[in-house]
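Morning, I've got a small favour to ask if you have a moment. I owe you a coffee for this, so here goes:
>
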Amino acid sequence: MKRTPAIVVSVIALLILAFVAGRATGKSGGNPPAAARRVLYYVDPMHPAYRSDKPGIAPDCGMALEAVYDGESGPAKPSLPPGSVSLSAEQQQLIGVRVETVAKSSGRHTVRTTGRVTADDNRVYRLMAGNDGWVRSLENNPPGTLVKKNQLLASLYSPEFQAAQASYLGFLANAERLKLNLDASGQTKLENEFRIYEEQLCLLGMGEEQLKELSSTRRATSYINLVAPADGIVLSRDISSRQRFEKGTELYRIADLHKVWILADVHGEDGEFRPETRAKVTIPELGSTIEARVSSSTPLFDLTSRTLKLRLEAANPRLLLRPDMFVDVEFQTNTPASLSVPAEAVLDSGLHKIVYVETSEGVFEPHPVEVAGTYGDRVALAKGIADGDRVVVAGNFLLDSESRMRATTLTANGPQLEIKTAVQHDALRDPVCGMTLTHSDPNLVERYQGETFSFCSKSCRKKFRDDPGRYAGEKSARVAVEEHQLDRRQD
């Protein structure tokens, strides 16, 4: 019984020693309590680029801001540019993302267009009246009639015909008498004069057959027979029976259609059309196909259709092609060397065209582009990408949907601020605080370097006046949100 107090004293002593040892250990090692650690700033757990000097609620997702303490590294995830999307390899495989490296290339592509048949101007004959006269008779040859060379078209009368024939016959009579007494030079001169008289009759409309008949019979006629100068088709006839005509009137227009021209509508970006380039010409009405070749003439620009009129030359032995017929034309042309992507890689919203570029592993960023031309299933780009860029060529529609879903509207202490991606339309926005404006107040407007800027308040307008260069350029919408929130807290 006497030993009990000694045991109790020993237990108390051990407890005191354990307590002292624990306090010593706490002072020499371990982490200090949270209250003793210094907070650097607070971040949005969903968007680490957003920082705040005070605790609160994240404006985009409603989650509590997380503290970053002294000695800790920042969030592991890097901040993404507006509109960018980050996907894991599994997510890319799930939505079918496929990437292609951009490089300069050239190739051949098919150009299909329409063409209009016209007569070869070098094979069109315009029969003009050499003097005033009347139409004695007219053959049955309206426009569209096929005629043969030296076929009678009409009989014409003119007093000048008889005078010209009389001069011709008188020269023939004198030439026969003089020819016997002339030397070689004199006979050459006589033959030249003979050709002059013949040319005068031909200019009046007399054909070769009638001229031979006049030379052999030596009998003048009151009429001149107007005949076809070559095989062809009557394009126009501007006279009728018993009609009076004046000198210089176009009586007939006849075209030889064994070779024709085809004027095809092309654009400058369709490719290079060198002379002798072959083209396939299809006549839809007849279901026939012929071959044509590009002529050496330079294409002319047509203001009405805003296209180049490329001239093709085609043989037409069966006369299948007639003037003003429309045909289908198909070319194989070389494309100029340029940066090109598959057509499905370009997303067209109507006002903007974009492609998604993989800027780093799993990170896809939208790039506005400018299209230079379309070649079959590929699109040549003039701006927006560079050689070596990795462009999304499949699954980009789902990428774009994800990008737009992330471009949500932020609500921060009242005013709504819109985060804009590079591919969204430009709205009326305060360049200082980023607030989207429904209308522009004339009293809250400033002009800088030729541009007009609208503001939501006088304070934003004053900040712009103090430093316009800071706000006039392109700014991240996220930075604008932060500044606006800090201003409201200070107020």
